[in-house]
Predict the structure.
Amino acid sequence: MKNNSTIILSILALVGAFGAVLPAAAGDSGETAYATFAGGCFWCLEADFEKVEGVLTVTSGYTGGHVANPTYEQVSAGGTGHAESVRVVYDPNVVSYDELLDYFWHHIDPTVTNRQFCDVGDQYRSAIFYNDEAQREAAERSLARLEQTKPFPQPIVTEITAATAFYPAETYHQDYAKKNPIRYAYYRNGCGRDQRLAELWGTEK
């Protein structure tokens, strides 16, 4: 009879052999990329992007400003130059940047400057913050397509601009819709976000 150590070594060898050929789980390629968007209240944009297949994480935060490590109180008061924004980490083998751009457009109001829905101020402006030249080109192509196909007459004023430092928002803002569903629903409905999106995009959203 084989001794215990020999048996254990044999088992480990078999596990190693089979483990080497097991395919990766669907959507688990290990490859990631990130995108940065601003579209008014980051609670809402975070909750929207978390519904997209291939999106791995969404972080609420602040970008586009000139103050290091801003607080929510500073940003919401205005004057820091930051926009409430989200950083979307995604698997490019499941969802493309072009698809994220299209999704973004249909979840904001791109016709207003320095506001989104009931929130007013440059901290609530809509923007695509590109992280490299490829993202800039993709964003500009996406805007050009939208200009030809948009179902509303107003011009599109959403910024396409280079990303600057992204500062994650305070912990209590992360996953706000999940942690505070009643308050979140009350805010989103009261702000008229979905009503306005339906007016702009209809069933396209």
